Amino acid sequence: MTSKNKISATEFSPIQTPISSNNKEVSKRSILLIMLIFVSGVIVAFLMLSRSVIFVTQPEGAKINVDGLSFNIGKNYLFLQDEYVIRASKEGYFTLEEILNLKEDYSPEIKLNLIPLPGDLKIDSNQSPIGVILDNVFQGETPLIIENIDKGLHELTFKKYGYFTKNENVEIQGLGKKQKLNISLDPSWGNVTFSSIPNNAMLSVDGKLQGKTPITTKVLETGSEISISLPGYKTFVNEVFVKAGSFSEYETISMELADGLLSLISQPPSANVTINGSYVGTTPLNTQLNANQTHKIDLYLDGYLKTSKNISLNPEEKFELEVNLIENIGEIYIDITPKDASVSVDGRSVRSGSQTLKLPAKQHQVSISKTGFETKVLSINPRPQMTQSISVNLMTLEQAYWASRPEIITSPVGTKLRLFKPNGEIFFLGAPRREPGRRANEAKKLVQLNRPFYLATTELSNAEYREWRSGHNSSSIRGVSLDLNSQPVSNISWEDAALFCNWLSEKEGLAQFYEVTNKKVSSINWNSNGYRLPTESEWAWVSKIAKNGDARIFPWKGSSYPPSEVVDNYADETASAILPFVIKNYNDQNSVSANVGSYKPNEKKIFNLSGNVSEWTNDFYEIRANNTEPLIDYRGPNSGNRHVIRGASWALGSRSELRLSFRQPGMEQRPDVGFRIARYVDAPGEDL
């Protein structure tokens, strides 16, 4: 049998251990030690991360204040790599405030130059008021205080009427201090006695009334203007000089009788007037005449007879004289074509057509006009007792338009351009399908050219191109140069050629033809008559359409190939070492490009259209036929990634390539491709 014991709960009481006083002391020391280590660490970290700066102030002894965390020992300041505001101040100087940025810039020594405060200057004199000028700037009159004058040497000038001007250099102490200056000037006058015949005349000196003669008054050593006046007499004016402090007597002044005043009017006005043979002006005029004398007055006016008058005036007499001039008539016969043209003389209409004009013998403006014709304005001068004859043949507006447009113009770089008037001529771009050598891109396109234009007679040379881009080099082929000044420019892109044309337009003051974005041609301004590349239609019309309207196959007459004589610069035998294909038995004396303007021009007096270098045109490249209605002044498609190149070159020589219908697409520069310039005669609306 197992016995069971009963377990009962008892009350728990924790053991109470007394805290030793030694443990309390250890805890305090530990805390203090930790704080000391922390502070020391902060200080060490600050010292490791900080930079030392010494401030050198001018003047010495300026007080330095720093916004931000820093320490200083003597002149040494410790800063973290941060931005601080430094202020330096000292009595008598402006406070200097600077930003110290140690994150971006560090210098162990920083100079702080304080600017001294300005000073004031009090100027007084027992001769006040005296004008005061400081450093060429007028300040006022004494007594005077001039404030805020910069520290340093300054120039003072003192002026007063009747005294010698005085210049003085003053050292301004500045630093907010006020200085005093007392000034004294030396008199610059002497005493002079004036008398006149008759006496009792009024005397003024430098514009100030002094009294009646005889009189003694002050005159400046530097010169004074004296004026003596008396009714009925001329005013006597003179400049008088005298030694300061002296006494003298001026010679007696004999007064002259006053002049009379003549007011002269003529009908008509603007007559030339002489008095006693001397020219005095045109009517209407006022003039003075010596009193009590007879004067001869003559009046002259183109178209009128000479008129003479004699006159005598009393002293100070005012007299008005009006003269009616008599016309002097001459005759001019004007023979006018067309017979019904309107005529006006000096803006006044007369009868139409040929007639005899009776006019005063002076210059007249005669205008002859008719609708549809250019107005003619003539300056005529009829002669008395003589009949003159003039013949006038009015030009139609078209005749006048072309008479004002020269056949040849010169570009700013010296290129000659010839005027062309297609007059609506219709022709085909491209070539017939059965033409030997025809290529697939020569689809026939019917076009009509109306708008007149100028085209360069030669290709652009290296020298002309380098007026724009001086560093351009057209390069060479196997040691044979393409870069001589007189050779055509090559190795240039279409973009280069277009931008050159814009530069030419700018030099001549014309609107630019090519609109440019980010140094690239982005669009075309067809309203411009600035320089440009020729359109393909213009190029083809000048090169292949003869004056009789026939379309040529080659630059030479007929359809045979190769040419029997030298026509232009093609791939000839001299280039056999350079080119894979050359024309047999053809020698143009140039293995690469020849000088521009070499060989004979074509029928329209244009050089090298068919050879030398192929040429960029303005058009984007496309292959599209048009055999119905002609395309007016065809410009090519509106967009594309290639441009049309026309004409053969020194590197081409096959039958196909020498034809005037030969065309190529191009994007990049080539050693055998250049360009010639063109431009419209006028902007749209200005054309005939």
From TrEMBL:
Tell whether Magnesium is among the UniProt keywords: no
Instruction: Spell out where the chain crosses the membrane.
Output: 31-49
Domain PEGA, chain residue ranges per copy:
119-187, 189-245, 262-325, 330-395
Under InterPro entries, the record lists: CTDL_fold, PEGA, SUMF_dom, SUMF_sf
Stored SUPFAM superfamilies: C-type lectin-like
UniProt domain Sulfatase-modifying factor enzyme-like: residue ranges: 430-679
Q: In this entry, which stretches build a coiled coil?
A: none
- This protein's UniProt keywords: Membrane, Transmembrane, Transmembrane helix
Please state what the protein is called. PEGA domain-containing protein
What is the originating organism of this protein?
Answer: SAR92 clade bacterium
